[in-house]
Amino acid sequence: MTQINTILVDDEQEALDTLEILLSEYPKINVIEKLSNSLDVFPAIINSKIDLIFLDIKMPLINGIELLEKIRSCNPLVHIVIVTAYDNYAMKVIKHNAFSYILKPVNRLELKETIEKITKCLNAKIGNGECDKVPILSKGDTVLIAFKDVIYFVAEGNYTHVFLKTGDKMVASYNMGVFVNKFPENVFVKINRSVMVNKDCIVAINKKNKSCLIKLDNQEITLNASAKFLREFNTIFGNG
């Protein structure tokens, strides 16, 4: 992993600036945003590929525990480090799978150990192929889905329909942006604003009818294709 895309969330600007300075000692940590409004975290993790969040607990609008729970439902893969002046939240954040818990003022050695563990964990997941699976929250259950087992996704508001090669269909409790960021672009391609398809399942396109044909075993499915996708088809599949 070349860089770890990171956002910092704290209602105190001084705390954000101090943490950013401390993290600047680690070239792999790429701080994308510093957020003083806790609710701004959701568009940030939906619209960008985020690997790591440093999160304060005591904040207005929504406390860190509630925020942690909502982040987990929106993006189950992101690593979260709690940074707080309070030492009585450890069990609660562990329950919600926070990666680490650092007390303010941030100790440089403790931060260094946390960064090393996160880097090792992310590298290990890539090396072991664990990133070939993504946890999907559906109807209150979390299900691990392998990239290769998905045919296509269809967005519907804040939900996403996931169509599997087994013939099963799931409704994920978050929008398409999460899947665009977490599923590799060399495997999946958006054929229109609402549909993302496993490239291995595409067998033909029809520019006249603006459609894309996907096939699995004896099953054929025709989906609408955007003019942009049809224009870029040859480039996407390495023929342009």
What does this structure look like?
The chain is of the alpha/beta class and 240 residues long. The protein is 30% helix and 34% strand. The chain is built from seven helices and 15 strands. Strands 2-1-3-4-5 form a five-stranded parallel beta sheet. The longest helix is centred in the middle third of the chain and has 20 residues, at 108-127. The chain starts with a strand and ends with a helix.
Distance between the termini: 29 Å
Rg, please?
20 Å
Q: Helicity, in percent?
A: 25-40%
**Helix and strand succession?**
EHEHEHEHEHEEEEEHEEEEEH
Please specify the SSE layout and strand pairing.
Elements: E1 4-9, H1 13-23, E2 29-35, H2 41-47, E3 52-55, H3 64-74, E4 79-84, H4 90-95, E5 100-103, H5 108-127, E6 133-138, E7 141-146, E8 150-156, E9 159-164, E10 169-172, H6 176-182, E11 188-192, E12 195-198, E13 202-206, E14 211-216, E15 219-224, H7 227-236
Parallel strand pairs: 1-2, 1-3, 3-4, 4-5
Antiparallel strand pairs: 6-7, 8-9, 8-12, 9-10, 11-12, 13-14, 14-15
Defining key terms:
about 240 residues, 5-stranded antiparallel beta sheet, elongated
